[in-house]
Task: structure prediction
Amino acid sequence: MSALAPAPTTTDTAMSIGTTRTVATSTSVWLRLFDVPLARVVALVFGYVLASLTATWPLAANITTAIPEGTEHEATVSIFSLWGLWWTADRAAHGFAGYWDAPFFHPARGVTAYSEPFPLVGLAVGPLWGLDLPPALIYNIALLGLLTLNGLFTYRLLRALDIAVVPASLGGLLAITLPFVAKVQGALPLAAVFGIPWTLEGLVRFAKTGSTRWAAWAGMGLVATYLTCQQYALLFGPVLVGAGVIALAQHRFARRPTLRLFGAMLVSALVVGLVALPGLRVRSDAGFRRSEDLVQALSARPGDFLTRPGLATVSFPASDPSDTGGLFPGFLVFGLATVGLVGGARHRATRRWTIFVAASVATSALVAMALNVELGGWHPFATARAIIPGVAELRSPTRATTMLQLCLVILATLGLAAMWSRMPCKGATLVALLGVLAAAENVSIPVRLTPVPLSTHTEWADWLRDQGPDTVVAHIPFPAGLHVSDYEVEAWRMFAQIDHQKPIVNGYSGNFPQLRSPLGAVVPVYTQFQLAIAQQFPTEQLLCILQRSQDVNTLVVDRGWLQRHATQLAEFSSFIEPAYGDEQVQIYRLQAPAGRCSPS
Result:
């Protein structure tokens, strides 16, 4: 002991013992909840992070300067997802005030609900924005964290099914390399699969115990599913209902277990409802509904399940870069799933859940095919669109493939577990190798990357940030088309907004502002306005619309466009006044001369 340190008093000793007991108690509670030794948790996290880095190579070598696109051919969705992380963090710092009124498509309200919000992911990485880290690094930490959680919660589900540690660990590895997740990595919410196995684990353990603890755990998993990916929560519905029935059937639908599970699900529904209702109200008022032709085009066809994602490392069967292609689950996963189905169905202890998982594979395949499924002239998915809230807004039913592939992973792990239990030590090593090879078969590397600046700061955005609080911006030019690739420029303008933080009339989202006519018809007002600006600007009428209807007082004009249209813009010098310029943009103040923009 140092000569300068005072000798401990009786009070100090008592406080030290109390603190030790508190830490020990907290650790004990943690381990009782997760039923996993701490050393194993560390090993699993380390292994799954390493697997996530491998499955996204060369992301690790570019982790601060690029983000994945998945099989997208443009950066629109990935940059929009990056913006979404920032917006959640920004609003969280203000108690979520104004969260639904994101500052794009100005002056439209509720535009956060126009697309897929994922507040739980944004909250998890929110503090990183305060450290002024590179935006790409924050995004990649979120992505790698989601992939790691996919593995960890799948492992927990498999352990709940009484699968041995090593096969369950391999099952978690298979969950990290789900082919469909690799296909859609450019859309960050679609990488968040972990809530599904979390919910199923709770139901499996509830089926064994009937305890409130595991009913609540299942409910928490359902909330996490919704707060990370609303589409998955919706598509998970049929599987969730089936799992709940299986869990209650094991208790013969006794009153107490039934009340516990329904109570937990009701609390979860109330929590989800608090988040969901504002968005549902906005989308209902706007009349958002995907056309039947679009949904059918994005519904899977049987042949799509026999093709690999466009970036798949293994080239047989052939890859398919189309929106609905690339749904093949892998030869080894499918073969192991067949072994697991046969073996699991033979044993009474695993028969019920094995049959349920196999039925979930079939159900998810039918949901993924959606409007391409017809039974005697009846389209079940069309009926679901008509009666189930939210289904009519679902653009791509193919995303139910995530559930299909996850359920095949569960069956495949049952197959690995059956082989593991029958093998001597050397054979067990071969089983472990088989699991690793099954994961490797489904890897899609090298991933396609989008370069991202190390900082959101630019000189023009810094200048704009220092302008008055009433500043409203229009970026010129507007996109001249309606394809997602046309909106990449708008996604980058939202990226710039992270720095200047001013409302913009531009933007990108899953839906765009529209109005209902007095007769109920939906009018796509924003896309009409966008195309008019793209094709006709500058005109006096459009300048007046920007100022009077959109509250715009600042034009940010790209230099490339300005070089081609300088003469036309100069004709309206009475409307605009240069305020700032650099190599990237020219910024103008917009103020119509008196009497030139009077109401019609």
